[in-house]
Automatic annotation (TrEMBL):
Residue ranges occupied by any FAD-binding domain in the UniProt entry: 61-425
Name of the protein described by the UniProt record: FAD-binding domain-containing protein
Cofactor(s) listed in the protein's UniProt record: FAD
The organism of origin for this protein: Rhizopogon vesiculosus
Alphabetized UniProt keyword annotations: FAD, Flavoprotein, Oxidoreductase
The keyword Transmembrane helix is annotated on this UniProt entry: no
Keyword Cell division belongs to the record: no
PROSITE patterns: UBIH (PS01304)
Classification via PANTHER family: BINDING MONOOXYGENASE, PUTATIVE (JCVI)-RELATED, TRK SYSTEM POTASSIUM UPTAKE PROTEIN
């Protein structure tokens, strides 16, 4: 692997100097991260830890291994829930490079819930693909690499975007630091053991040529160290033997197996490069050759520099390990495939990759969990890992606080495993078609946006409006269908909601309300009085939920009081339309901390039944 010197300042000159997060030279300066205002902050302060509060306890109850996006999201989700963490990474420096830059719409929603809006603001839509046949300089018709969903009020993030992984990680680290939580680089997990009460980890801190051993005891451990933790420092001839030994340790301690296949027909070298070429534009993603044979793609990115590109070299017969170690070989291959006059300025970093389309057979054992435990392609890997972390950590926070039974953590495995399994089947089929035909058309699949992912099959979701059908296919990884909505689906957005209680009137959106440190109960009712009996019965849950009444646009807005934390009038009908509710109907939705609908019920008894599956007796 070829790597340039690490840097914390990431150049993004494509953004104008008027952007408040940039100085005139285009480098990141100290970012002031905004926080959404809850309609009644006093009702949620029981779990919302202030960034000014020092949460760096001597013995944090959670150790997170790996400080890529998955580990950082796990850490931030727990910190937002008031749970201190320790996060380590074996690399001595923060990683540089675009790496896995694709961010899908569902992940953008989760970053929004985590109150990290600058990720969406800094990211750019995927450019169109401009393909050239080998030996010609005439491009074919432009193609989309990922689908664009029709924007609606229910879908605020409707297109896949790209943002360099180094910049994504930097943004997330800045948020951790507001909780006095800092990534410990150069710190490796060497081994661990666990009991019913704790996890004991042996850590190695590298200082120059010396290694300092530390025994660290914690209550929970989350592994988020990715697929290439072993390969980045081993010779290829040693990889299979050493990786088998590595996985053997995990199997012995957690009983995990990796299921799937390694595809020798998908072998690539990828990295960041600076070059100039009059025949290339900086608008499109340009590909030369064919995925069925040999190809190189170049995606312009000003994050690397005004002459910066992310490149991907693909060829089943390439010696990718040798190429990744040689700047000159990379230059020569790009020049031979592009067949235009190119000036190579600098190779920033490069690495090799082969498609290991695998997943673990389970995501946890005892007090140890793995996130980022599947290796799909098509811009799904990092995104699925982030969604794994989000699913796990709101549950872990409730258990750590003593509010939920430890058995709740078993649903991390039962909810995520079918989704990842289905995802691997879909993405593998798409890749196989591309490698066989050289065509990219099947990548334009709306399922890749990840908005249709659901867990309707979960034991902890409850839907009183749906009759179970024996033998009905689960299909947890699919395109979004906004004509149906069941418990286990993502909760839709609804903008332009008129906030009429408490306090002065203003306009907000439902996504302003959804946060990873509480459940949100939405009572759709024709009048405030219709919701009163339901709200009264929810008093026992006030420490773990915020409740709201959603009134139709036809409801009279007169002075009133309510037991709810907020009352909103759906003045343009977006909420009633997205949640499929009639104006005369009373219907209750429980939105989980991960933005998934946990329950759709008739009233208070249904809410109690749902929380009996989540919480200890309150």
């Amino acid at each position: 692997m070829v790597v340039a010197s690490p840097q914390e300042n990431i150049i993004i000159p494509q953004l104008s100097s008027s952007n408040s997060n940039l100085n005139t030279s285009g480098t990141i300066k100290n970012v002031i991260f905004s926080h959404h205002t809850d309609p009644n902050p006093s009702t949620v302060n029981f779990t919302l830890s202030k960034p000014q509060q020092d949460m760096h306890y001597n013995h944090p109850p959670v150790l997170i291994v790996g400080a890529g996006p998955v580990g950082l999201v796990a850490a931030l989700t727990l910190l937002r829930n008031g749970i201190p963490v320790r996060i380590i990474d074996k690399d001595p420096n923060h990683r540089i490079g675009q790496r896995a830059p694709g961010i899908q719409p569902r992940s953008l929603e989760l970053y929004n819930f985590l109150d990290v809006p600058e990720i969406n603001e800094l990211a750019n839509p995927f450019p169109l693909l401009r393909s050239f046949t080998t030996g010609t300089k005439e491009p074919s018709e432009l193609q989309r690499m990922f689908p664009v969903i029709e924007p609606t009020p229910a879908i605020p993030f409707f297109t896949s975007k790209v943002l360099g992984q180094d910049l994504l990680e930097l943004s997330l680290r800045r948020h951790l630091e507001k909780y006095s939580c800092f990534v410990e680089t150069g710190t490796e997990l060497r081994s661990f053991k666990q009991s019913d009460e704790e996890v004991t980890a042996v850590l190695v801190k590298k200082q120059g040529e010396d290694e300092i051993l530390e025994t660290f005891t914690t209550k929970w451990m989350v592994g988020a160290d990715g697929a290439k933790g072993v390969r980045t420092w081993l010779k290829r001839s040693d990889v299979n033997e050493i990786e088998d030994k590595f996985i053997g340790v995990v199997r012995k301690q957690l009983g995990l197996t990796f299921q799937g296949e390694t595809r020798d027909d998908f072998r690539v070298v990828t990295g960041d490069i600076r070059l100039t070429c009059a025949g290339l534009n900086r608008v499109h993603w340009q590909q030369f050759g064919s995925m069925a044979d040999r190809s190189v793609s170049l995606r312009p990115t000003d994050e690397v520099g005004e002459d910066g590109w992310q490149f991907v070299i693909l060829g089943a017969d390439y010696d990718i390990e040798k190429i990744a170690q040689s700047q000159q070989l990379i230059f020569d291959i790009i020049a031979s495939l592009v067949d235009m006059d190119i000036t190579f300025n600098k190779l920033i970093w490069a690495t090799d990759y082969r498609a290991n389309i695998r997943m673990v057979n389970k995501f946890s054992e005892g007090r140890v969990f793995v996130a980022d435990a599947a290796h799909p392609i098509g811009g799904q890997g990092l995104n699925s890992g982030v969604q794994d972390a989000f699913n796990l950590c709101w549950k872990l926070a409730l258990v750590e606080k003593g509010l939920a039974h430890k058995s709740l953590l078993e649903t991390y495995n039962s909810e995520r495993l079918p989704i990842i399994s289905d995802m691997l089947k879909v993405t593998t089929s798409i890749m196989s078609h591309a490698l066989k035909t050289g065509g990219m058309e099947r990548w334009n699949n709306s399922a890749l946006c990840m908005l249709g992912i659901h867990c309707r099959f979960s034991d902890i979701v409850l839907d009183e409006f749906v009759t179970p059908v024996e033998g009905k296919p689960i299909n947890p990884y699919r395109a979004l269908d906004d004509t149906e909505l069941e418990a286990g689906d993502r909760a839709p957005e609804a903008p332009k909601m008129l906030h009429v209680y408490p306090g002065k009137s203003d306009v907000m959106t439902l996504f302003n309300l959804y946060r990873p440190w509480y459940h949100t109960i939405l009572v759709f009712a024709p009048t405030p009085a219709s919701a009163t009996p339901i709200l009264a019965a929810l008093e026992r849950y006030k420490t773990v939920v915020q409740s709201g009444v959603i009134l139709p646009s036809s409801a009279p807005v007169t002075p009133f009081t309510s037991a709810a934390n907020f009352v909103l009038v759906d003045q343009e009908g977006h909420a009633y339309s997205a949640y499929l509710v009639e104006a005369s109907q009373t219907k209750v939705f429980v939105v989980r901390p991960d933005g998934v609908i946990g329950a759709i019920v008739h009233g208070a008894e249904g809410v109690k039944k749902y929380f009996s599956r989540i919480l200890r007796e309150m």
